[in-house]
Amino acid sequence: MKPAHGPEAQEVANAASWAAQPERSNAWALRLMSVIALAAGRRLARVVLHLIAVYYVLFSPRQRRASRRYVERVLGRSGNWIDGYRHVLCFASTVLDRVYLLREQTDWLDLRISGSQHVDDCLAHGQGAILMGAHIGSFEALRATGRDRPDLDITMLMFPDNARLINEALAAIAPNAKPQIIALGRPEAMLQVRDKLASGGLVGVLADRTLPVESVRANTLWLPFFGKPAPFSDAPFRLAELLRQRIIFMVALYAGGPVYDARFEPLADFSERLRDPAQREARVLAAMQAYVAKLEALCRESPYNWFNFHDYWHEDTPA
Predict the structure, then answer these.
(1) Crossing angle for the helix pair 20-40 and 7-18, nearest 10 degrees?
(2) What is the three-class DSSP state of 275?
(3) In Å, what is the CA distance from 15 to each residue of 12, 18, 114, 170, 317?
(4) What are the backbone angles phi and psi of residue 217, rounded to the nearest 5°?
(5) What angle do CA 265, 266, 267 make, to 5 degrees?
(6) Is the pTM of this model over 0.70?
(7) Most buried among 77, 88, 227, 297, by the most CB within 10 A?
(8) First and final CA of the chain: distance in angstroms?
(9) CB atoms within 10 A of CB 317
(10) Burial of 32 (0-12, 13-18, 19+ CB in 10 A)
């Protein structure tokens, strides 16, 4: 574990140039899938997904290289064309299903939920909580767990450019979808988060990407991830520590066909105020390490559900 500095700090700074690319690609893919989904229906659209997956494996060398490196780490063997195809197909399947989930067309959905009592416990005590996830599985399937729960008030934290891209895509696909989003990097963002949690709301964040953060309190730590250090921001964890919140890990793994496996598990508890700065730092680090360990375990369990198709370990960054 080490904070980013020197060449590594430059690597993190370089992240600004590609940070918006995954969301821009996701927004484009969502629009494409919406056309296919609404024109063909889910059964026929899933057939078309195979052609789309083949196309991306053949003609997206950067994403193919990133996928191969990840697959080799998670499976412990050399990656091949079939692995890349299965990886992209899994991602395309969740994007397709996202269209139907956003439009609340869920008759086909087999959603299996475990651990929801941890969220209920926070709500029962009038407390909010930070729901922390990653770019693994489907966030829209997670949102579907609350479709019959009007008491669930979930707001997502996003960077402004990403929030704009997502909102534009949603407006085109599901005009009635009104996701609650707080844009980070603005002076009022922290107050909005504090007020949402104080009112018993839930704040969600995907913490597996390192993006430029203006706060001097935020650091990028390089933590072991599949045997090689990878950058993780401590900003979401420091937010939980500052606001004295519990963190619940959330994920909805795509299990094939209509099946999604949604899980909620306690990750860290910052509700008790610690006066010793060293103890606070140790608790933040322990929470980050628990997050990375959970993420690695989930990737091993369901390897093709990981959707970071970029140079995650910064292996292509010049020394």
Answers:
(1) 30
(2) coil
(3) 5, 5, 35, 25, 10
(4) -80, -10
(5) 110
(6) yes
(7) 88
(8) 19
(9) 14
(10) middle
